[in-house]
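Task: complex structure prediction.
Instruction: return structure tokens for all chains below.
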Amino acid sequence: MSPSETVNAFIAAIEAKDVETAVSFASENISYENMPTDPIIGLSGLTKTLNSFLGPATTVEWRILEQWEVGPTVVNERLDRFQIGTGWLELPVAGVFKVDQNGKIALWRDYFDMATYTRQLAALTGK
Amino acid sequence: MSPSETVNAFIAAIEAKDVETAVSFASENISYENMPTDPIIGLSGLTKTLNSFLGPATTVEWRILEQWEVGPTVVNERLDRFQIGTGWLELPVAGVFKVDQNGKIALWRDYFDMATYTRQLAALTGK
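Output:
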């Protein structure tokens, strides 16, 4: 698989809410960096964070608007969508992925506005 | 100039707080999109927004951590730094630039966490 294909398969597993399959595409030493918060290192942290993101959503759709691959690096612009209750939470994201020599995602760095996420989550969940 | 060279020159002008030169690299129809806020179309809006970002800073340093060029598109990860008073405001950003056939920046889209910016600005300016 090319780096782009790995990222595509990773995101497809996330959309299927299949965290176990998603995590299988990640390196055991993955650095998962949501830029507004501290980096998360390793598969257990990745699993926990994906579950917390995906848990409230009945449907998950991460639209890849554009994606570039340069060597081992994949960069994309996405609209990450989560159906929660009767509404959709929509989060614009720029993601940077580095795929290592074993074909595993070793770095995943997402740039987004946290308040855009929390404001919609609060409106949809009443919390 | 290649698309990357255009973006580099644009950012160098911003670092020099030379808004007039920076704007000369932009298309008159530029769409300037700070993702947490509404898009800004055209040169007068770009000029005004750059002045408001750069105004409070005595020194501006936008570190390009990594940059990719694919066709007319340039994508970078940056640490945008602003010296304000005795401290530095530091903002992680992922930027997407599209350079048109006239060599002008027609799209500039920055992904970042607004609270990371406003929290530091408030601490440094006391506002």
